[in-house]
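Thread title: Can someone regenerate the structure for this chain?

I was given the following input by a collaborator and told the matching structure tokens would be attached. They weren't. Posting the sequence so someone can regenerate them.
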Amino acid sequence: MMMMMVVVMMMMMMMMMMMMMMMMMMMMMMMMMMMMMMMMMMMMMMMMMMMMMMM
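Best answer:
Regenerated them for you:
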């Protein structure tokens, strides 16, 4: 009985850890995507400014 409880607790802990890791990975991916989008926007703005200056 005690062994079963311990095993169940361990499994639960492992599941929680896996969920946390997945959440962290998702957050990191989202942050990276946001950064990339911001960089692209900045580049576009710079290009537009350059074009305006050239005209």
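Residues 18 and 52 are 51 Å apart (CA to CA).
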